[in-house]
User: What shape does this take?
Amino acid sequence: MMLPGGACMNVPELPAREGVLAFALFLLVYVSLIGLTKRLRKTTGLKFGRMTQFFLFCVAALAGLSLVPLEALGKQTLILHLTAATVLTGCFPLVAVLNHLLWAEGRSGEKKREAPRLLADTTGLLVFVTMVILVLQFIYQVRVPGLLAGSGVVAIILGLAMQDLLGNIFGGFSIFMDKPFKTGDWLNVNGTDAKVLEVTWRSTRLLTNDDVLIDVPNHNIVRQVITNFERPSPTHRVSAEISLHYDAPPRQVQQKLAEAVALVPHVLADPKPVIYVKAYQDSGILYEIRVWINDHAFANEVLSQVRVVAWYAARRANLEIPYPQLTLHRPRPRSADPNMAEEAARILAKHPIFGVLEPEQIGTLVAQSPVQLFAGNEALTRQGEPGESMFLLLRGECEVRIRKENTESTVAHLHAGDCLGEMSLLSGDPRSATVVAIGELVALELSHAVFQNLVQEHPTLLEKLSELLAQRQMANQEFALSDAITHTSKTSASILSSLRDFFHLGDSCL
Assistant: This one.
């Protein structure tokens, strides 16, 4: 080997035998350590990253160098650097073991829970800093205390630069110790509703209802006023508002709105929805609709549906939703949709009960009966409540539910052209079933007074009507299939007799 000045130096070469043995030892140690880590991963669940493989490589290399003669060129320097690399890369498997022992998932017999990410990251940071100091102090013979003392200006600069970093770390520890929230909680932070995805040593990651990721530094989030929708329990209240005209009695409004929003999906039955009179405004009375949910992920959906069903309920009850106007007179009510009236008349003409009527008579019946709109999940009738009308479905569909022994079952589906509520309307009995709209539904509502006028003009209608009511009563009472014909005949005769008495018609009229 040529040295400066043209001199030569004889360098001992590594004998082939020692080289082969060193390489063989390297492979043996490396393969053995790889097998050991795989076995630990299967038996203990430890998770090792790619840096662990580099650590195993360094350990195997050190083992192989032990067979290299001491006088080989560069051995001391290579061992020095390999030792430093081994210590530093050894931080990664060491941190994995410490996190498994200190912050691992729940032990046997304990509730399973995920290890806090903040503690795992802090453990890794402390171990790495400690190992760096050890490498500098004992391997490279660098006096760390003297280095830090002699670099006062650098220390000040680093301190100022790490001010926010340290604030985030202490903020993270504050979150972990105080536990104002945990992963999976729904929060309101600075006016934004978001779900906690992860708390790290630097920041808290949130996901909004719009699927937007927000990364909030820990030292900022601990200074905010935070609303946790999961504490002390997931059950919490959400509110919507609606303004109605002064002519509407508040008690009536409260009853109609409470009934309308009770069947909104994800709204809890207990506590029940509450309607408050919130304020008297210039154009109307402001009502606050309060409902309770136990999953804030559905808050926007619930509030939207509450506002929807409130509009439909107000429309059916002829409750006017006022708005600011420059005129002094009230607006006239909207006229009925002529297309809807024609459709109702066409369906009635094909109906088994009303098909006996003349077109003029059907037109009169439609003109005297209002067309009602229902939102999805709204109830047309409620089991056990008195009925004052029957409905003819014009558009949409609904399902019939019967509750027995605290269990509600769906017994039938009704579509356009079907009618419901006949028994309660004609006999005065309570509703035998709850009928709930599936999606938006349009129905013609026939009142008792309008129907009585029709029956008195056409008494033969009672016979067909009694047969239909008998079949409907059988379905609701779940008669056996084998007895269907016998029960139909008895029920039809009984209902026909009751109808004659109810409408004050004698046998001669039929």
